[in-house]
Amino acid sequence: MKKNTKLFLSYVLPSMIGMLIVGSYSIVDTIFIGWSAGELGLASVAVTWPLVMLFGAVGDMLGTGAAIIISQSRGNGDLRRARRSFANMLVWQVVFSAAMTVSVYMWLVDILRLFGASDELIPGAVRYARILIVGNLAYMLVTAMLSVIRNDGRPVLSMWLMIGGLLLNVALDYLFIFPLGGGIAGAAYATVVSQVVIAVAGLTYFTTGYTELRFDWAMFKLKFKYLKDILVNGFPSLGNQLSIIAMLFFHNYQALKYGQVNGLAAYTFVGAVESLGSLLMTGLSLGVQPLVAYLYGGRRYRRQNVIGNMGYYTAFGLGIVMTGVSVAGHNVFPGWFNLHGEAAALAAHGLIISSTAFVLLGVVRVAGYYYQATGKIIDSSLLIYGDAFVALPLCLFTLPLWFGMDGVWLAMPVSRVLLFLFVCYLWFGKKAKPQPRRHFSGKGF
Questions:
Q1: How far apart are CA 344 and CA 254, in angstroms?
Q2: Quick one: pLDDT at residue 442?
Q3: pTM, whole model, 2 decimals?
């Protein structure tokens, strides 16, 4: 048990810290923008987040798909498959990035209007989004490489890359926004430059002798078989990102409808907190995932289940703590974002209600990644896509009819309950297929 706990913590803690750092990117940008551009600036940036995160979602799908294959391949000793999957993933990142950049840039204003941007918000939103769209390849590569580095047995290195990116982003935010007077555009430039630096640092790791995935020309031979395997394994990860995008998009729309600009500014704050909590739970899940995938690849099913249960218990306990912190600081945190008056009051009230979602959020997230790591792609996808396109929209478009703006805040907690009921069905309602026991004598965990 001590061995399992030590192994669990060695992956989960760096992964959680790393994802907390990733979530802090948006928090830092939001704070700087709030102090430099006020409520209107915050609302302008809020409508761009779903679009910008879409690039990260595709990058995460490709990166996590390859990372799972790498972990499973390491578990059964198939290094060739691991290296080919990694190289193919990098090439397809470039292809997908180019296609998305051209498509989105051409119809940017129309897309932003679809996401709820009004005439008042369009100028700032376009200025912010264009910069991030042009620099999206770095964002996609960073998202992918952090997953691969973590699953390559280097969770601490993955964490330090994210910490370095955040510190650089903070410094550049201050420089570009205040001394250089860049405003919203300055925040976007800061994000892009910091992502480029981390992408270069991450790629450099794969030129060293510290990894068996180091670059050579032979591994870059493209095969659609590898792309298919990457997409299949990464498909649930796309859904995890889409659930965050859906959360922001649908909340933005409903907050603007029921709370006007103050409501949207308030949700910009609450959404940043929700996204931070979601990413922290994703970090926990990403720490569990490579261990489960490795053990699944080696057919060590009993230990795989032990690690999974550790993830569930940790997620539940962490969710209670996060809810408590949010409620305790609900009157203080909005001021950090320079919210005042009605917007601050809405944000404080909304945080009390929405933060209760944290209790079950992590349990649901760990379940999705666990099923993905063990090849149960259909179960994982039903759980994850059911969040983005069924449970959350259902709650967001029905609860406000009865509760107004409070219904917007209630949507996350209620949708988590619905998803948890589905997890319970997967745990207890489906007849599990027997898994043969097998002793694995190779090197590894």
A1: 18
A2: 44
A3: 0.69
